[in-house]
Amino acid sequence: MFGKVLAFAVLIFFLIPSTQGGSAVAYVPVNDTAGTVEQVRIDSIRRVAITDSVISICKQSLGLPYKYGGNSPVTGFDCSHFVAHAFGQLGVALSCSSLGMSEQGTEVCLEDVQKGDLMFFKGRNINSTRVGHVALVIDVQPGSIKIIHSTHRGVVIDEYTTMAYYKQRFLMARRIAY
User: Fold this and answer.
1) What pLDDT, on the 0 to 100 scale, is given for residue 38?
2) Burial level of 15, CB count in 10 A (0-12/13-18/19+)?
3) How many Cα atoms within 13 Å fall on the side-chain side of residue 49?
4) What is the pLDDT along the chain (178 residues), one digit of tens a residue?
5) What's the burial of 137, exposed, middle or buried (CB within 10 Å: 0-12/13-18/19+)?
């Protein structure tokens, strides 16, 4: 059943442009055995399809080395080029700097963070108030936020809520419009 809904979402993503404040809906089967349908906003389906695709693209780079100023899926990325590259593969343009990205989209509270949101952190200097690092949220469960990012350890997945280094440096989360 999930596969059919996902296939439909991908079909919607490619055939229907993002709505700009419209109320377009699609009817999606949610239970094949009962034959029920549910109204789903097309822009919500589009967002889920893009988010899942961006996460998949990011996971393909797991283990790739960190490279300061790097913007290559072959030789390595810095944090911001890593995120910008993944979104760019799907036509979503982001700044190539973490500071620039932190000015895009809409700020969201940490408690409201969702898959696909960006989290911004101070760099190495804990006393700074300036954005120096960005990560992509790939999973949110009660008490758990998993992020993927390019760090000195390379491209890795981390559990934000257990990492004092990042918890001390968290500045904001933002939801990018796509």
Assistant:
1) 57
2) exposed
3) 24
4) 434 434 444 444 444 444 344 445 455 555 555 555 555 677 889 999 999 999 999 999 999 999 999 999 999 999 999 999 999 999 999 999 999 999 999 999 999 999 999 999 999 999 999 999 999 999 999 999 999 999 999 999 999 999 999 999 999 999 999 9
5) buried
Within 8 A by CB and 6+ apart from 111, the residues are none
The whole-angstrom separation of Cα 145 and Cα 160 is 6
DSSP code of 20? Answer: S
- Sorted by where each starts, the structural domains of the chain and their CATH numbers stand as 2-49 (no CATH), 60-175 (3.90.1720.10)
Which CA distances in Å does 135 have to 14, 108, 110, 144? 27, 15, 13, 15
DSSP annotation string for 102-130: TTSSEEE-GGG--TT-EEEEE-S-TT--S
Quote the pTM value. 0.79
Q: What is the CB neighbour count within 10 angstroms for residue 83?
A: 26
With H, G, I as helix, E, B as strand and everything else as coil, classify residue 49. helix
Between helix 79-88 and helix 42-59 the angle, nearest 10°, is 130
Closest CA to 97 of 112, 115, 114, 77: 77
